[in-house]
Amino acid sequence: MKRNTQVLLALLASYALVPLLFGSNHYIMSMVVAALVIGGVALSWALLGNLGGMVSFGHSAFFGVGAYTSAIVSMKLGLPVPLSMLLGGLGAVVASAAMLPVLRLRGPYFALAILAYAHIFRILATEWKPVTGGAAGISNIPRLPELLGFDFGSKTGNYWVILSLVVVLAFAYQRIRKSHYGLALRAMHESEDATRVVGVNSTLLKALMLVVSAFMCGLVGAFNAHYINFLEPDYAFSSVWVTLPIVAAIFGGYRTLTGPVIGAVAVYLVDQLVFKAIMPSGHQLVLGLLLVAMVLLSPDGLLSIARNMTGRRHAAA
Fold it and tell me: What element of type H or E holds 230?
C-alpha cells in the first residue's frame, strides 16, 4: 500500500510539477519529451530482453515502421492522429511478424538478425518514394489535435501525451510480468528445455513478447512522428533508437519496471544539459565511461543503488 501511494504521488508530481516549473521553457520541455520517448523505447526493449530473454539490436525497425505508418495514414487517408498512432503500433506488429523466423536463433545471432531487418526496412523506406517520399522524407505531418479546448500539440500537451503513453506501457509490462505468462517466461530463463518438458510452448511465448514489444515501440515512434512533424529514413531508423534505449535500460536497471524510464530521463537530460554544455563535442564519451562504471559497480542499475542506500539508512536508524 505504501509503495502504491508513493507511485501515485510520483505520477501526480510528474503530471503537475514539470509543466508548472518548465512549461514556459520550450527547450527544457523538448528535452523532457525526448527523454520520455527514449524511455518508452527502452521499456519495450527491456520487456523483450527481461521477459523474452532476447537481446535486440533492431528496435529502430519497430520505431521507424510505427512512425511511417502513422504519418502516412494520417496524411494520405486523413485519419485522426490518435487512430493513426494506434495503426502505427499495429504496423510495427506486422513488421515483427516478418521477423518471426529468426526466433529460432539465440544470443548474438538473434540480435544481429533483428539488426539486419532494421536495415532492410530503412532501405524500403528510402526506395518506396511514392509512399514514403524517399530520402527527402515527409514533412508537415499532422500534429496532435486540440481537444476540449486544450492544444495537445503544444509542448505541455505533447509532454502529457508521451508521459501517459509511458505510464500505460509500464502498466501493461507489469501485468504481463505478474501473469502466468510472465512466470513461464522467467522459468524459461533458468532452463528453456525444462519448461518445454512441462508443456510450455517457449517459441510461442517469445513470439508474443516480440509482438508486444514491437507494438509498444511502434506506438512511441508514431507519437514522435506527430511530435516533430517530419520524417526521413535515416532519422526514423537511426541507430540512436537502439543505442540510447539500451544504455538507458541498463543504466536504470532493465530488470525493473521503472528502471528503463528513470535511466532514460537521467541519461538523456544529464548528457544534453550538463555534459554537452561542458564538452560540446565528445560529450558522449563521458556517458560511455559512466555506463562502464555502472556495469562494473552496479550491474542492476540506478534503482539498485537507491535501494541499497535506503536499506543502509533504515539499518542505521
Answer: strand 230-231
Q: Is 290 exposed, middle or buried (0-12, 13-18, 19+ CB in 10 A)?
A: middle
The alpha carbon of residue 123 and the mean position of all alpha carbons in its chain are separated, in whole angstroms, by 22
Are the C-beta atoms of 49 and 59 separated by less than 8 Å?
A: no
Which pLDDT score, from 0 to 100, does residue 2 have?
Answer: 63
The overall pTM is greater than 0.70: yes
- Cα separation, 177 vs 258, in Å, equals 13
d(CA 220, CA 232): 16
Q: Which one, of 153, 122, 157, 152, lies nearest residue 231 by Cα?
A: 122
CB-CB contact of 206 with 83 (8 Å): no
Question: Which residue, 141, 124, 127, 142, is CA-closest to 65?
Answer: 124
Asked if residues 216 and 43 have their Cβ atoms less than 8 Å apart, the reply is yes
φ and ψ of 196, to 5 deg: -65, -35
